[in-house]
Amino acid sequence: MCSENERARQGASQDAGLRSAGPLPCLTVPSLLDLFLSFLRLGSVSFGGPGMVAYIRRLAVERRRWVSEQDFQQGVALCQAVPGATAMQCAAYVGLRARGVLGAVASYLGFGLPAFALMLSLSAAYRHALSIHAVSGALVGLRCLVVALVANAAWAFGRSSCDALEHGVIAGVTAGLFLVGGSPFLIVVGTGLAGAILLRGPQPRPETGLVQTPGWGALRAPGIALAVAALLVATLLAFSGGLEALGLAMMKVDLFAFGGGFASVPLMYHEVVEKHAWMRPAVFMDGIALGQVTPGPIVITATFVGYQVARLTGAVVSTVCVFLPSFLIVLLAEPWFRRLRSSPVFGAAVQGLLLSFVGLLASVTVQFARVAPWSVPSGIIAAIALVALVRKVDVLWVVLAGAAASAALVPLISK
Q: Do 102 and 173 share a domain, yes or no?
């Protein structure tokens, strides 16, 4: 039997626009503090990027019964279709379904805070650590290992996204455009539009189960959150001491990072290294390596970038701006996603966007390989790392082993 709170929760879900063909399972209603602390604990061990979605499901569906299995699957589909880091978006979605907009905020903050705190600490120690011979040697080796990380991401994206000849052609063309110096943002938009035209398939079958029938009232709470977020960003940028360009660059990165957190890497590289020249490629690659040994998504590299540009203020501005846009998109899209998902134009556009990131990751692999400090030992480390990643060895252990090997081989790698 469902308790009074559980029945109230189910009734509230139906009033929000969901009509069920059958009885809903009994769900529990967490407090905002419970959501925050639960995701804070999970975020502290959230190594593995998108793989953390399975652990979020175990927490929210199996252990705590905050959302139903069908509801969670719908949320995963939504988070894969919108820009941003998939695991972070799933945390926000669970909070949204469990306790509305405030629940989404509590879950999102709890899940992201451990990664921010650790990356902030590593960023502060970075410049001092460069004077330590073993650390600097380890970082030299890790820059070559980053090439393997991005190459593996390009391979994984390609395998999952290119299942037809035209898909491979589109990805190849976009890779060429990126390599000749085209704007990544314009190319991504163009490929999305091309996908909507060229990749459109037949009308999908209507979904069964819960039928989405939202009204404009479903956007009231997300609209308030959007207004508050706009005020937050305006205040943040007004008192950031001239860091408007940094904040806007990170928001642009987040808005176009379709396909998960790793899709943000080439976009961030373009903004930070090529366009604004805030840091050298080698330093940016060090930030990516540090992003792999911290919990949370790879996009937390934004904290490192912000700190190197303007210390603590820059880290806060950069981090807030790289996470906020995609969070708001989840809030705004959730009531309408089922309808959008049934549109062949929408599905084809998303497919085009994912293909553009296959090409983008391939081109950045080439760019990183050009500036990496290659030597025989660092090449061997990168090759072994690539084989391990392809064979599904956890990226954390690959990076830690690569750092240890690099530190041990400092005299050879530094030659």
A: no
